[in-house]
Structures are given as structure tokens and as C-alpha cells.
Amino acid sequence: MDPTDTTDPTYYHRVVDCQWACPAHTNVPEYIRLIAQGRYDDAYLLNRESNVFPAILGRTCDRPCEPACRRARVDGEAVAICRLKRVAADLSGDVSDRLPKPPEEKNGKRVACVGAGPASLTVANDLLPLGYSVTIFEQHETAGGLMRTNIPAFRLPASVLDEETQAIIDMGADVRYGTRVTSLRALLGDGYDAIFVGSGAPRGKELDLPGRWEETGDTHIHIGIDWLESIAFGHVSSVGERVLIIGVGNTAMDCCRSSRRLGGKDIKVMARRPRAFFKASPWELEDAEEEGVEILVNHSPKRFVLEDGRLVGMELDVLEWDERAVHSQVVGTVVIPCDDVILAIGQENAFPWIERDLGLAFGEWDLPVVDETTMESTLPGVFFGGDSAWGPKNIIWAVAHGHEAAISIHNHCQGVAVTERPPVGMNLYSQRMGIGQWSYANDFNPAGRQKMDHVELSRRFAALDLEVEVGFSAEQTVREVQRCLNCDIQTAFRAPLCIECDACVDVCPAGCLTITGNGSEEELAAHLPVARTNFEQALFVSDALPQTGRVMVKDENVCVHCGLCAERCPTSAWNMERFELHLPYAKDATVVWSR
Amino acid sequence: MASITKPLIPLVRLERNELGLTVRDYEGAMSTLCAGCGHDSITAAIIRAVFELAIPPHMISKLSGIGCSSKTTAYFVRGAHGFNAVHGRMAAIATGANAANRQLRTIGVSGDGDSLSIGVGHLTHAIRRNVNMLYVIENNGVYGLTKGQFSASADVSSTSKRGEPNLLPPIDPMMLGLSLGATFVARGFSGDKAHLVPLLKAGLEHEGFALVDVISPCIQFGDHEGSTKSYAFTREHETLVDDPLLLGEDQIVAHLPDDATTSVRMHSGEVLRLRSLPAGFDPTDRASAFAYLEERKAAGEIPMGLFYVNEAVPDVHELNETSSEPLVSVPYKRLCPGSSALEEIQQRFV
After folding, report:
1. Binary contact (A444, B4; C-beta < 8 A)
2. Is A138 domain-assigned?
């Protein structure tokens, strides 16, 4: 194999599984270390740099980082990354004086954002400090978008949401509340230098089955996201005792748990497929079941059952699936009586306000055609991000889109091609403090994952906005931070220094090193002390070693970054070096300053 | 010294031997030797050898004397019996331990100082007695624990770290072993485990005294340009005489002998196969081993491999008619029959 090019930031970035998996590439291990040191303000600000909403995401993130976490491959349970993020937010003090400030003099460029959700707010966050005038059009009287309307307050308190959205708005965004954008043509006519569409995926999918439109009185069939929005704005405050939720995604979980708080007693979630194929995050399923919600698998809705124009139940087919849950057959039919049905089977984008003759192309599923790197539509100067770009994802994706769009908008307004992306860089800092001394805690702590405490069930439903998760205690935090394996502290190898004494190979607790003659990937892997099991993880191959011409090979998969290889290395051919990814933001983009 | 103990990683899928043990089950305490010490690699090779032979840890006795090398018995097979003897006396203690319990595998680890200076008198007699043990000399040519003075195995013209040349001729443990009638004489290199591990395995399976000299660079005082026992010098000058492979009984048939192969049947029934031997060299012929070693030495090479093996010489147990039952399991009454029994014996000589 060719020697691994570790000067490409991508190589070390991939070793940091959590940071690689995070759409916004938050520097997780570093903020966990800052928490461990009690530097909560610094941990919060480090988070904020990439994900903008640490307190919100610390409660609601979809956590793509956790399934990726190396710790899960080492002892079966990922580090509780998301909840540690919340610790940083909960315990940080007032950081307002450390947030970016807008310059006194504006740069004369005007940007319009449609919707005040996470994507638009990220764009504003990145552009306001550069002197842009940012106007945000928001249909509601409050900011936050789906974070406010679709995430119940018992998961995300309004005060938390207000604090983090307001921090951005206070940088000088001009938010036009209660203003729905009805025409892109009109908006284009207002002469903005760039337009960012962050209007989300605001339309819940309909379930057009017999009986759907036959209710004669008040409707008891609700679209999940609209229903949640009505709860958020206080328009709905009760539900029937028997509630059926159709669908088993995260919105379904929010609907069933909200029902529990509005008077629902017998709440059933109906899933078409077996549990292994549920869309909801495992922890959200767990939380719902803890509250007494019943989840029924293999039930497919057939019709709404009505009596005298009033919903009384739902008829469902009982399915039997093949192993991969691709093909099913109906094995029976049941009627489940209920008072309300909530449809949580997905969301769609809706752009009735975008005229189709503006040169802005729409593709499959009536979604705008958006460039994956630049976030630009086919109409120069109009950018998309968040759910409005490619359909429903989650908050952290919206943030990632916002950052990229802000770079494009900055380029666009400065006369630089949007395709010209600022480079990704890295720094490596030696962690060696002396013989056998490192500036990070290198010992492997066998502690298990800490469980988040919840408000007792007996008190939990007292108020709709009573937050269920209480956050980690100081003791839990101390234990959990030690579970992080510090994957960003890289094992950096310098072949010319190696004397092939084998000390690193002998001492490695994970059996991930070997020295052998160079060969194909399979040949090198065959020589590893522990068989390679994860082919997603790279095989590091060094340059030829000076004494024998063999190569050092490392399987990155289960390295626990304990630093023993570097400690036992007599020549410092191995060293532990902290990898710091330099992900560019709008502030790092090329500036052509013409006045 | 390492800052942490080598951790056990729960989900790392380590290979298991016939006993269901992993290589980690044969480890010992963390080494406190210098980073990069050849001795640590030899420790790892011993761990690998006993793991592959699937020897139960409690059926091993490990003994050592004094010196860097002698610390290493603490670093392998924590479940084994151990004895740390006074300087140079490991061979004597091992003789006693081996005579008292022939069921234990005896592993002695010593250094060039412990074995070739202060302890050379004991080593020679253990060889003559053909004690059934693996005797490893971790040979670095310097007294590392006392700041790197030359040891008895330092080559003439090899220099100290500060540049003074050594003037005294070395004791070559291979020549010493051959001249005293050792029944298994081999040399390996700490930096080449692919070669060393099979040698150690063969030494463990040998019934009799297996003398294995292992070149083990001293990272602190012997790994410099003037040293003839540095990693680089050893690699540049080593000549591998063989490619040893220990085969189980069941594997013998599958491997038909070819011209370049010599097979030696071990007492245990396994067959040691040696390939790529130089022409005219026969590891079962002592004279040929002497001649070969002399010739290579004159050519400035460091030959590595199994130079001599003889499975036919009676070992310490056969020569001394030792108890087949370990003394520890002989009932006390029989082991120490009392003063009346002594009286009876003495009466024979009256």
C-alpha cells in the first residue's frame, strides 16, 4: 500500500469518529476535556463555534455522533456526548461578552432570510459579525422555527430556546415577526444582495384513507406537526383519553408524550414495520415507553371508523414481514377504538410562494435543485438550507447547511465564485509534557455510561412545560467525561525515527499495531495481532522504515488513544498530538474588499 | 516507566489458545525498563511462545538473578511460580527447582552479566547437568543497570557510549554451551520475533538444557554507532541460518521433507523443522556447528538460529533418578521419614 498521507486533514478527522459523523463537525473530545477541567464557558463557546445552539442541541440533537462513537466499539456504549453538551450549556456563565460582535460600520450588503429557524439563524450568526445587514422574515411572533413549534417544551424549555435565538438576533438581525413571505418574485424585487431560504419542511403528510374527510363536527384527526404547533402556541390544551398515533418517528414520539400531558390515558403508537426499522431514535422510544405509551408493531392503517360523523376508532391491517421488512402480507384486521388520531408519518416541503418562472429549477418530489456544496439554487444569489433544501433532516444538519450557505453568500456578495471554498486546515499539538506525562488523561476508564435522571413519573405531567430530563449531576459528569477516549489526541508516527524495537507493538492494549513487509491491504491486515473487523476505519501505513524497509501498520478501529505506544517509544517516532480541525466559516472566506 | 497499566479493552477480540486463554492471560506486571529495551521484546516473545504452546500458567516456574534482564520475569505470566535469586545464582536455584518438580516448565531469564560474569560458574554446571529448562540470556554487552560498563560478552573494538573501545575478548555463550555439551544451543534477536518465538518454543519443548542467547540492544548504553549490539548493527550483520518452525505431531505427514530441510524430532513428539540451512551445516553435528560459528565470526557476521540440538542426551532427571512425582505432592511422612529412618541408614555404614 502507499504510505498514508497524514498531512491531509481528512485522515485524522476520520479518526475522531464523533467529529467526523457530526454534520457541523463539532470538536467533541476537546469540549469534553474542557468540561472535565470545569471550563464550562470555554466548552460552551467551542461548541457554539460549530453548532451555534449548544443548549438546544444538548437536549434535542439527533446525535449522529453517538452511534459513531469509538467507545461503543470498545465497551458497547457510546459516550453520552449530547448530554455532556447540555452540561456545558447548563453550567456556563454569561458568555455574551465573548460572542462575536457586529462591526460598527456595515459593509453595505443586504441579505434576506426566509424563516427564523436554525438554518437562517446560523446564516445570520455567521454574516452579522462581517458587517452584513440581515433581515429575517418569520411568519410567527417568535423565533426558532420548528425548534419552537415541533419540539415540546417538556423536552426543550422556551427559556433555553429564547436565550440562544436571541443571542443571534441581538447581533443586529432585523426580524420581521408575523410576516409570511408570499412571493419570491416580490422579495427579489426588494433588491437584496442575497436571499437565503430556511423555511423548513412545514407540511405534515396526509393519510388519505376512507373516513378521513367524513367527520361532521370538530375534527379529531390531526396532522402531527400542526398539532404540536397548536400546543406550542396554546391553541390546543386537551385531547381525548384514547389516542392513536400513526407513525413511529421522532415527531410521533413528541405527539404521544404530548398526548400524555393533555389528558390522554390510553395512548398507542401504531408502527407498520418491526421495531428494528423504526425511525425514532432509541432514546426517544425509551422515554415514551417509560411514560406508559404502548407501541404496536406491524399495524398498517386501513380506514378511519366513524359513527354519526364522529371518529370512534381506526381499522388496521396486521402485517407479517419478511426478515428485512421489505415484503409483507396481511394476516388479520383489527379495529382499535379511539377518541383522537394523530398522523405523524412524515413531512414535506412546500413552496407555494416560489413562482416557477423565476429560473429557480425544481427537481424530484418538487424540491428545489440545490448544489450540495454551495447550497445555491439554480437562481444565482438564492440559497437554501435546513429542511427546505432536501427535506426533513434535523437541527444539526440545518446548522451545517447554514454555515456553508453563509460562506457562499459572503463569496457571492464579494464577487467571488461561490464554488471557491476556503480550505480546511489542521493543527497538531504535541501532548508530551515529560517522560510518561501527557497533557491529557490517557488512562482507560472502564466506567459504564451514565444514565440521565428523569423527573419522577408522579410529578412529570403536572405541567406541559416541565422539563423531563434533569441533566447530569456533578458526579455523573465527572464519570462520563472520563469515558471519552480522546480520539483527537492522535498517534502521530514519524518513520525516519523508528528503530523497529517492537516496543509499541508489544505494549498496545488493543493489538492494533504491527511491523511487516509492505503488501496489499489484505496482506498487511492479515499481519495485525487482532483481526480487522471494521473496514470503515482506515489502515495507517507508514513510509518504509530505515533499518529493514518494512512498514508500520496501524488499524485505527479500536485504538483507545492511551498513548502507551508513544510512552514506550524510545525515539519519539510515535507521539501523541492533539488534532485541531480548522473548518472554515464565512469569516475565513476570501475577502475582496472593493470600496 | 509507563504512566498507566496496560488496560484491558472489553470488546477487543483476541485469539484464544487450546486452553481458551488469550495472550493477555500470559502477561505480567508493566515493565519498568527503559522504553525501547530489547528485553521487553523478549518478554513479549516468551509470552507469545507459552501462549502458543498453551502451557497452563500455573505449570510454569520462572526464575532469574539480578540485573535489568532479571527484572523481566515479573513482566510475563503473572500466574506462574517465580523465584528471584541472588546475583548469578539463578542456574543453581533453577537446578534445585527443576529437580524437585519435573512437571513444571522451568524458564530462567538472565543477562550477560548475571550469566557470563558473576554467574558463569553456575551456568556451566547447569549445562553439564542438562537441567530440563529454557535458559534465556538477554545479551546486550553492557551493564545497563550500573551505567553501561562493558560486560563479558562485549566484542573487542565495540565502544562504550562515550567512545572508549573494549579491549577484552568476549565470552561467546554459544561456544561456551557447545564446549560444555549443551544439548540445545541457539541464538535469536529481540528485534525479530518471527524468528525468536519458534526458537523459544523449540527450547521449551526440548528435554534438557536449552540455551538461547538473545541479542537484546541496550537502548540507553548500547544502541549507538560504536556498539556491536545495537539494533542497526545487529540487523546489518546478522545471518539467519534457519527459519525454524515447530510442527505438531499431526502436521508432520503433511510436510514432506525437501532438500533444504532438516527435521528434528523433539521428545514431546513434535517436530522441529529447520529450513534454508547453509550447505554443509548440520545442527545435529557439534563439530559442524563449531566450524560454522568460527567461520561466520571470522567473516564479521552474527549468525542467528539453532546451531546444535541433541534430544538423545539424558537430562537431569534421568541422570539423577529424580522423583517422578513432584516433591511438593509427596506426603510429608514419606518425604521426611524421621530420625529412626536416618538411624537405619547410618547403621548400614557402621
Report:
1. yes
2. yes
ipTM of the complex: 0.92
Determine the pLDDT at residue B252. 38
Residues A213 and A151 in one domain: no
pTM for the model stands at: 0.90
- Give tens-digit pLDDT for A102-130: 999 999 999 999 999 999 999 999 999 99
From A347, A372, A396, the end of a domain falls on: A347
Do A171 and A109 share a structural domain? yes
Query: CATH no. for residue B115?
Result: 3.40.50.970
* B165 min Cα distance to partner chain A (Å): 24
Domain count, chain A: 2
Q: Is residue A123 classed exposed, middle or buried when 0-12, 13-18 and 19+ CB atoms within 10 A define those classes?
A: buried
* Residue-level pLDDT at B267: 77
Nearest to A511 among B12, B190, B235 (CB): B12
Confirm or reject contact between A547 and chain B (CB < 8 A).
yes
Indicate if A258 and A363 belong to the same structural domain: no
B39 CB-contact burial (10 Å; exposed 0-12 / middle 13-18 / buried 19+): buried
Per the CB < 8 Å rule, is A74 touching B11?
Answer: yes
Does residue A451 register a pLDDT over 50?
yes
Last residue within a domain, chosen from A347, A376, A397: A347
Residue A595's pLDDT is: 41
CATH number of the domain that residue A166 is part of: 3.50.50.60
State the average pLDDT over residues A318-347.
93
What's the pLDDT score for residue A217?
86
Interface contacts (A, B; CB < 8 Å): 108
**Structural domain of residue A108, as residue ranges?**
100-202+349-414
Per-residue pLDDT tens over the stretch A225-252? 999 999 999 999 999 999 999 999 999 9
The alpha carbon of residue A537 is apart from the nearest alpha carbon of chain B, in Å, by 15
Residues 572-591 of A with CB under 8 A from B: none
| Domain-located, residue A406 | yes
The total number of structural domains in chain B stands at 1
Question: If we measure between CA atoms, which residue out of A232, A301, A307 comes closest to residue A262?
Answer: A232
- Identify the contact set of chain B against chain A, taking CB-CB distances under 8 A: 1-4, 6-15, 23, 34-38, 40-41, 43-44, 190-191, 193, 217, 219, 223, 231-232, 235
What is the number of H-type helices and E-type strands within chain A? 22, 23
Please state, in angstroms and rounded to a whole number, the distance separating the CA atoms of residues A421 and A410. 11
Query: pLDDT-based confidence at B251, cuts 50/70/90?
Result: very low
What's the whole-number mean pLDDT along residues B183-206? 94
Closest CA to A122 of A71, A66, A164: A164
Q: Which of B2, B13, B41 sits opposite A564 (nearest CB)?
A: B2
